[in-house]
Amino acid sequence: MLKNITQSSIVVLDQDEALDFYVNKLGLELNTDQDLGFMRWLTVNVPGDPSRQILLEKPGPPAMDEATAAQVRELVTKGAMGGWLCISTDDAQKSYETLKARGVEITDEPTEKPYGVDFGIRDPFGNAIRIGQLNAPAGE
Description:
By secondary structure, the protein is of the alpha/beta class.
């Protein structure tokens, strides 16, 4: 039956700005940048793992009509409709220092949690991102 999540999306207001942020600041890699005529299909992925892509989706057709897209843009701009991503790392402290040095907005610093160490950042559009160094599952 169902096997894997291969693609998910996050709403961005400017795909070029999103591409710069997700690739040049976060360190993800460009997977697909294709003009489909009715939309730009722009995906990124964690380096070396093209099987899980994030669509950097601009509000509009074909997913929504222009009136709905305008409402979504307004909510994103207010920070009221930000998406959410969680990305793992082998070293949360090192990732934190790297992203801070690159000027990424930090929403909270690395903190020890029951599941590992994580911290929060925000993309230029208000989407929340958690970066986590997760503990090994019990029994490993």
